Amino acid sequence: MDIKPLVRREVVSLSAYEPEDYAGVRIKLDAMENPYPLPERLQAGLAGALAEVPLNRYPDPEAPRLKDALSEYLGVGAENLVLGNGSDELIGMIIQAFGGSPGIISYPMPTFSMYGIVARSMGQEVMELPLTADFQINFDGWLRLFSVRRPKVIFISYPNNPTGNLFDPDRIRRLIEGCFSIVVVDEAYFSFSGESFIDKIHELPNLAVLRTLSKIGMAGLRLGVMAAGKDIIREVNKVRLPYNINSLSQAAAGFLLRNRAAVDEQVLKIIDERERIYEALNGMDGVATAWPSKTNFILFRVNGAGKIHKELKARGILVRNMDAPGPLKDCLRVTIGTPEENREFLGVLKEILSGKQ
Ligand code: PMP
């Protein structure tokens, strides 16, 4: 039987996520991970916490211990949190709860690709609004547009992936107050920017803030957090699958959050390295532009990004090729690694750009 006619119309035109080929990669700077492994002194404690998990039982659907640890970490009441299997899952839950049949989902371009992928897979109409040449939002234009065509949900990555910059917080606030949409401020890179809307969730009933543990050393656990006022929390909880956070992730994330001093040190090192790489890239012959960043990655433009990406990979260094017609033409995105990894990345890039290999 040919199952094609049974596939949902929205799914026919999608393609499955294509994982990178990691064969031969020694230095992995493509996915905004924290380059530092768990410190040795915490490994036995983590193993002990995991050994106690009753795997014969379903996870606690409310994850109370983990929510308490997150509440203390984020400075927000546990009742204002919904957890997701990565913030990717929360993006889906928000659209499930607030999208329409179909509804409009809006976000700037370029930005994190999952907003559009998830919205389309759920049959939503997407309204992609270009950033200005210096990667800023045209807030007046957005507000005018939204008074004519109302999105159900607006996503703002703050700071923005892949451009690395923050947007004006006062103007974001005015947008939240002036529109009739749920506004999701995605703070996946908060640890590297220090700027947040999380303390505004009680004043702004249409604001949801997303955070993730992925960029600060726990990408393998898959844990994302949405913080919002009680009305948004209630609706999103209705579409959440009860056991979406498995027991091992709950135990591991709780343990790591209670022992997070080591992570704070790592974040400071990453920020220092980010500034060093930014200077080095901007001073390197063959790099047209490197953009300042408030994240743990840097976007930069070279001549012939596709070829340079391949040559770096052939030397065991993986960055992300963002090259596409439009504002990201010839752009690469490098995640900040350890000082040794960064030194090698810069050295090899310099050799490739100067034509000596
Ligand atoms: N939001 C943004 C802006 C991101 O860049 C990413 C990861 N690339 C995510 C969310 C997803 O994070 P998670 O690992 O929590 O699904």
CATH third-tier fold name of the largest domain: Aspartate Aminotransferase, domain 2
Helix content: 25-40%
**Distance separating the two termini:** 54 Å
What structural category arises from helix and sheet content?
alpha/beta
Helices, by number, come to 13
Give the CATH class of the largest domain. Alpha Beta
Order of helices and strands: HEHHEHEHEHEHEHEEHHHEEHEEEH
CATH-defined architecture of the largest domain: 3-Layer(aba) Sandwich
Q: How many beta-strand segments?
A: 13
What hetero molecules are in the model?
4'-deoxy-4'-aminopyridoxal-5'-phosphate
Radius of gyration: 21 Å
Question: What is the CATH homology-level superfamily of the largest domain?
Answer: Type I PLP-dependent aspartate aminotransferase-like (Major domain)
Inertia-based shape = globular
Number of domains: 2
Largest sheet: 7 strands, mixed
Strand order of the largest sheet: 2-8-7-6-5-3-4
Low-confidence stretches: none
Question: What does this protein structure show overall?
Answer:
Helices cover 39% and strands 16% of the residues. By secondary structure, it is α/β, with parallel strands linked by helices. It has two domains: 120 residues, Aspartate Aminotransferase, domain 1 (Alpha-Beta Complex); 207 residues, Aspartate Aminotransferase, domain 2. The protein has a seven-stranded mixed sheet. A four-stranded antiparallel sheet has the order 9-10-13-12, with helices on one face. A hairpin with a 6-residue loop joins strand 9 and strand 10. Helix 2 runs antiparallel to helix 10. The N and C termini lie far apart (54 Å). The mean pLDDT is 96. It binds 4'-deoxy-4'-aminopyridoxal-5'-phosphate (PMP). 4'-deoxy-4'-aminopyridoxal-5'-phosphate binds next to helix 4.
